[in-house]
Amino acid sequence: MANKISQHTTFLNKARRVFLILGAIYVFAVALGTVPFVQTQLLYMHNLKIPLFAEYSLPERYDLAPFKTHNVRIYTSDNETLGAWFTLADPFYLSHKADLLTPTSSSSEEFIRSALHTHPTILFLHGNGGTRALRSRVQHYQAFAARLRANVLAPDYRGFGDSTGTPSEVGLTLDARAAWDWLRARGALPENILIVGNSLGTGVAVQFASGLESEGEDGDKRSGEQPRGVVLLAPFSNIDTLLDTYYIMGIVPLLAPLRIFPYIADFVKRFLTHRFDSLAKVVGLNVPLLIVHAEDDWDIPYSHSQTLFDAFLEQHLPPLPELTAAMVGVSDEVAERVTKLSQERAALRRELVTTSEIERVGRVEAFSSKNRSKVVFLHTRWGGHDRVGLMEGVQDYIAEMFNMDRGYIELGKSTEKGSS
Length: 420
Hints:
Layout: H1 2-32, H2 36-44, E1 69-75, E2 81-87, H3 90-95, H4 97-100, H5 107-118, E3 121-125, H6 135-147, E4 151-155, H7 169-185, E5 193-198, H8 200-217, E6 229-233, H9 239-245, E7 247-248, E8 252-253, H10 262-269, H11 278-281, E9 289-294, H12 303-314, H13 332-352, E10 354-358, E11 362-369, E12 372-380, H14 392-401, H15 408-413, H16 415-418
Parallel strand pairs: 3-4, 3-5, 5-6, 6-9, 9-12
Antiparallel strand pairs: 1-2, 2-4, 7-8, 10-11, 11-12
Helix pairs in contact: 7-8
């Protein structure tokens, strides 16, 4: 009996030691995360240049058709140089294939300009880590070019791939602006450019698109530059909330253990140098907006997308008292009033939001009003994080919502229909 007690005590001591070590590692990791340099490395992961030693001048090496994708350089307003790939829409490529396979020194630029005049274009803003040659990203270019019949411009942000500089929230927004200006300089009309962001790219997309809206309000000479729309694939509401909900590999919680010490979590967040607060800016967008998120997204919970969509409804719903977050101890009268308000909000929400199902894909929630463009949340049952945009059901919905299956002239005429 004494031997069993001794073994049990030894086991408990070892278990305590292991937990103490793990706790110390966790505290050290959280403390390390408050260092700006470390934050930059963890958020952007721009030094993970996957695939290694990529040959950006040979897109064909990454399963793209000969001369269908062109390696281009884009210059930002703060003197950084971005590497990017411009992929031709499949119909354009097939109709010009013979000429593309016998290129001249000036033909690349001519083909790009011609493609921009005859097909819609997607400005694709990718997530963190990797480069424009990453397999899953190449699959997006291929799918958009084929199924959406659109050109695709995919820049590597500063510090990514063969682009110069170091990433930052302001810097990535400037990169998106530079890519937009590159398209505009070659003849692309704003209403024929669809901005698509994935993961980190959704934060960049919202920051950049809201900047376009602000320019219009201030009377900027480019005030007419409103994109055809914005698509957010697996977005987050802001970095603050993401830290609370993020699980590394879908298993290891990032800041969830600190929920029992909320003041410590708030203290740690004060050191954030990159916030990408999409929630604060997304409501200011007045262009057709599609939010797509999968239930089986292990990286960013789909509750982030629900929060972004619901933000558009808040101004149309009666506000709830702040005490609803902690109802313990309130009077019966207050509790009854809050319950009644909640019921009114739910009823009004059902009137404002049109809900439908796409068989074997997911649920669609749509909202629009006289004063703003259509906002849609496509909540898919599967698709994961980086591949939800590759679902053909999602691509078909993008094509339908933004009239991507029509030619350039028709697109210009049907913009109002796609924005209703």
